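Supplementary Note 2. Why include the ligand at all?

Several targets in our set were suspected to adopt different conformations when bound, so apo predictions alone were not considered sufficient. For every target with a known small-molecule partner we therefore ran a joint prediction. The input for flavin-adenine dinucleotide is given below.
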Amino acid sequence: RSNGKLDRFVVIGGGISGLTSAFYLKKEAELRGREAHITVVDPSERIGGKINTLRKEGFVIEKGPDSFLARKTPIIDLAFDLGIGNELTGTNPAAKKTYIVHRGKLHPMPPGLVLGVPTEIMPFAKTGLLSWGGKARAMLDFVLPASKAEGDESLGSFLSRRVGPEVMERIAEPLLAGIYAGDLNKLSLQATFPQFREAERRHGSLIRGTRANRGKGTAAPAAPGRLPKRAQGSMFLTFQNGLATMLEALTEALAGCDSRFGCKAVAFRKNEPGEADGPEAAPYDVLLSNGEILPADGVVITAPAFDAADLLEPHLPVDALRSIDYVSVANVVMAFDKAAIGIDFDGSGFLVPRSEGMTITACTWTSAKWLHSSPSDKVLLRCYVGRAGDEEVVDLPDGALTDAVRRDIKSVLGITAEPLFTEITRLHRSMPQYPVGHLEATARLRAQLRAEMPGVWIAGAAFEGVGLPDCIRQGKDAAAIVYDAVEG
Ligand code: FAD
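The joint prediction is reproduced in token form.
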């Protein structure tokens, strides 16, 4: 025991945010020459939260997230901190194209689109995805004055104001659906794509601003040489044996820490100084569903907003947490014999706008996009269902869901072959929807935590970015913030 004291931490949630927090809390203790006891609590029996890799019959199947943006470095730093940086891999360079369904047919996404914003005019002018009126409306972005309004607005209102409803509905929404599965008219611009507003503000035009920023940081910037060759230059990265590689490495690195999997944090007690005494007395007690009480000097809460709200409600106003809706989604993975399919996939997959009226929202040609994912004589497709306003589909019985997905695959790709196997994953209330004003609301909540519950912090997908690198950054920051408070 350094300083004669053991610092006790409870991390609520064993997803990537919580595990990262625990990992960096351990590192912080080493750096500060202190001794920490860290316990990770999660009601699931399985580590990793949304991350869920299935290795089966030579396939690497991601049932949750499948990759991350290479330009966001906290995850790459974590990979190297964990000693698994050499397992990073990039997408197949021959499968760069993405398609969008329009009137039932696949159209390649015009080159130069950055998050749905055109930056090259000729391919945009030629695309069959939009009407002439829709293209002309998008070009008005060059002349429309920038809004002078301060503060947040919805992503939908911003995009329809700048590039018009057609680009928004046929291109931007299906593209962004993969990240939020959301209703763009409800999502916060500031909390999702602040660079869009910044482009308008600085360049007077979303297209001009996006063009000016184009190329800045698409592939991993910091020391790309440290990445293995197969990962260099790729916009997306993953691990060649799946994202679970990170969970396995974290489990190993957290040896010596405690965990309570299969056990929920059900309440949270704040002990006023002098209120609790005895050798175990701590500023906080975390009560678990198994009846156990964990005394804590510091607590990192990484549970989804609705669970975090239940825990914090007795202590603080939690409207910031309650106002974050979650959308349910599912994915259906199907494996085929390549010979039975007869398609040479030349891209990474396709997106389906709402107006097409299909069940699926997108389909990734996983075996083409990620060469490590499948044996070379097999094809792996991952189809997505569920988005804001269309969530009932997630709970269709397995047979009905598979039939609906196969109908769509048949109509778009002509595939009628029987899958070798099908894996269905339902993720209820899994995609947080940052409401307009989210950043301010989060900042207010955190300021209250700092003032009234020092040593307690909230982090994770509900707050500052849903992507894995954003969750990792938040988990790492949380470790330093909480340790600073504990150390005083
Ligand atoms: P979670 O993984 O949700 O972990 C929170 C944990 O808290 C859960 O395990 C839960 O059981 C636990 N918990 C809840 N209540 C309690 C309680 N009372 N006590 C203790 N524990 C509790 N991101 C990317 O970067 N790339 C992708 O390709 C990508 N694809 C995605 C695909 C899907 C289908 C989904 C749903 C998300 C995807 N994301 C992707 C986003 C990313 O996966 C998540 O944002 C991230 O994994 C969330 O991590 P987290 O630790 O913050 O939350």
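The first strand starts at residue 6 and ends at 12. The mean pLDDT is 94. Comparable summaries for the other entries are listed in the accompanying table.
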